[in-house]
Predict the structure.
Amino acid sequence: MSDTPNDGLRGELSKHGVFTTTLEGIHNWGRRNSVWPLQFGLACCAIEMIATSMARYDLARFGAEVFRPSPRQADLMIVAGTVTKKMAPQVVRLYNQMPEPKYVIAMGACAISGGPFKQGYNVLKGIDRYLPVDVHIPGCPPRPEALIHAFMTLQRQIDAQSLKGEDRPRHLRAEADSEFPVPTFGPKDLSPSSNPNTWVPPKVSRKG
């Protein structure tokens, strides 16, 4: 038998001005409403990200009004735009400098898969090759409403996290990685070409 009031009992108690919650619930409530994004952009998607924080869309309504100029003070990285191989080490380095818990939103087709530059030699085919992405936003570029929807999706993910048990998030696992290898420039490409802990190339079956 659970000692947590069910939804029916909570509804009846709230009618009398009594509100019940759990330590896990109030912990996640505080975190989901105080997400601070890192202030940086890579390409045209960054313009849409800037518009999302302006008065018309007002991302501050969701507790994300403070775009921090330092990764030491941010817990959300919005990868907004094309990630070139020249910028990939810097993006991973910034992520490693962010404190836990931290999250990643891949904004736009370029950040997800390379977009229209996918076949180019100088563009990374998705930031998820090096970083764990929590929410993907398709589009080229996605509108501010799409970023708000992604932010709300991230909030729901944070709200559903457990503080204990097997399904607890990465930052509560002592054995989980908090930092990821920063790629370097090899003779032909980035080395390593991907992070095996976050991305595994799909198996391609060829019919002869």
